[in-house]
Design brief:
It catalyses: Endonucleolytic cleavage to 5'-phosphomonoester. The chain has 200 residues and is an alpha/beta fold. It has a single domain, classed as 2-Layer Sandwich (Nucleotidyltransferase, domain 5). The chain has six helices and five strands. A five-stranded mixed sheet has the order 3-2-1-4-5, with helices on both faces. A hairpin with an 8-residue loop joins strand 1 and strand 2. Helix 1 packs across helix 4 and helix 2 crosses helix 3. The chain is globular. The protein starts with 12 loop residues before the first strand and ends in a 21-residue tail after the last helix.
Length: 200
């Protein structure tokens, strides 16, 4: 079954999603997208099902053809301050805020959200594999975040962020053990498995 266009028809509906929630370093990035009724692209799917190359092909197409889109970054300091769930919701709110057209309804990937400006919303588990606007938001969030991780990889190449994007791979954890942490690491996360509390 292909992706559905809308959860509610005949209203301006924005889909929103985030990337980077499970990472040890870097920001959580969210996107919000309102698509036109006739939006079509054969590749569009949940960004996790796509290759990096496919996501990079989709991003300019989504940006050019969306009625509106917004992208926001919440950095590791804010994540440590308010926790990753609240930071993810804040990122989605900030992305919606950036839309040039105000949505009348919001569909959210996942099962946690806080009301935004009293606009009705619906949380949808695995929404990025069900609805076009959430899938489009997932592509934008992921490509913008990957781009950011590529940039900071130049500053700290020993963590292989270009490859692992900040996720807790074996290589990333070993680099933390060997070199310690960077300003981009989330201090409230368990950065290495044996860690009970972080020596700061």
């Amino acid at each position: 079954m292909g992706l559905q266009k809308y959860f509610l028809k005949n209203v301006l509906e924005a889909g929103t999603d985030e990337a980077g929630r499970g990472c040890l370093s870097g920001p959580v990035v969210a996107a919000a997208v309102i698509l036109p009724e006739d939006f079509e692209h054969p590749l569009l799917n949940d960004s996790k099902q796509l290759t990096e190359k496919q996501r990079e092909l989709l991003r300019p197409f989504i940006e050019k053809n969306a009625l509106a889109f917004g992208v926001s970054y919440i950095n590791e300091l804010k994540i440590d301050e308010i926790n990753i769930l609240q930071a993810s919701i804040l990122a989605m709110h900030t992305a919606i805020e950036k839309l040039s057209v105000a949505p009348e309804h919001i569909i959210v990937d996942g099962n946690k959200f806080n009301s935004f400006k009293n606009i009705p919303y619906k949380t949808i588990i695995k929404g990025d594999a069900k609805f076009m606007s959430i899938a489009a938001a997932s592509v934008l969030a992921k490509t913008y975040r990957d781009e950011f991780m590529h940039k900071i990889d130049l500053e700290f190449p020993e963590y292989y962020w270009k490859k692992n994007k900040g996720y807790p791979t074996k290589q990333h954890r070993e680099a933390i053990r060997e070199f310690g942490i960077t300003p981009y690491h989330r201090k409230t996360f368990r950065l290495v498995p044996e860690q009970l509390k972080l020596e700061l």
